[in-house]
Amino acid sequence: MSGADDKPRHERLDFTLPSLLVDAAQKVVDGHRRRGTRVAVAESCTGGLVAAALTEVPGSSDVLETSFVVYSNEAKVALGVSSDVLETFGAVSEATAWSMAQAALKRSEAHLAVAITGIAGPAGGNERKPVGTVVFARAARGADAKEVVSDRKQFGDLGRGGVRLQAALCALELLMPADDGADAP
User: Fold this and answer.
1) Strand order, beta sheet including 133-140
2) How far apart are the C-alpha atoms of 104 and 44, rounded to whole Å?
3) Do the domain assignments include residue 1?
4) How far apart are CA 40 and CA 168, in angstroms?
5) Between β-strands 64-69 and 112-118, what pairing exists: parallel, antiparallel or unpaired?
6) Are 70 and 99 in contact (CB under 8 A)?
7) How many domains are there within the chain?
8) Which of 45, 92, 103, 112 has the fewest C-beta atoms lying within 10 Å of its C-beta?
9) 117 DSSP 8-state letter
10) Which range marks the domain in which residue 163 is found?
11) pTM of the model
């Protein structure tokens, strides 16, 4: 009788997510572990996919401080996004992503936070913000609020899973330490 350890790695289900995502998460965990820094994520359209990717990596608890899944506008407000920001700019905006990243830092001890908000589809898009529009923000503890990095991507209509995967990969890239040296962010 053979045990689970006798099976090839791909048959043991060590990972439940695509290897592309897990490999990106591994780089984030390794980079922050070397620096002794921790991260937080605030996710909307990815619904926890970034945190799931990070937690696929053994020892990720050294790096992942917390994750907030704030899918509805009410959840975004509960996290700390102003209802005025949501009403003025919308849920899928640089202002909302910026507010989500700042709120994730405020509600954690993380050194770095990344926020993701977007339209995965198949519905919900419009001419100005079509399906596949995703906005990201990256904020570092102690940095000037003007140093928050935000970016808007148009992935196109890749299907719900495709948009979420591309968004998670971008978020993981943003979670990489800015300079993989010895200094904390």
Assistant:
1) 64-69, 39-43, 112-118, 133-140, 149-154
2) 13
3) no
4) 14
5) unpaired
6) no
7) 1
8) 92
9) E
10) 16-175
11) 0.88
- State the Cα–Cα distance between residues 31 and 8, nearest whole angstrom: 28
Give domain status of residue 2, yes or no.
Answer: no
Residue 107 located in a structural domain: yes
Within a domain: residue 30? yes
Residue 18 tokens read as 């695509």
Amino acid at 94: E
CATH code of the domain in which 41 resides: 3.90.950.20
pLDDT tens, the chain, 185 aa long: 455 566 665 566 666 899 999 999 999 999 999 999 999 999 999 999 999 999 999 999 999 999 999 999 999 999 999 999 999 999 999 999 999 999 999 999 999 999 999 999 999 989 999 999 999 999 999 988 777 789 999 999 999 999 999 999 999 999 999 765 433 33
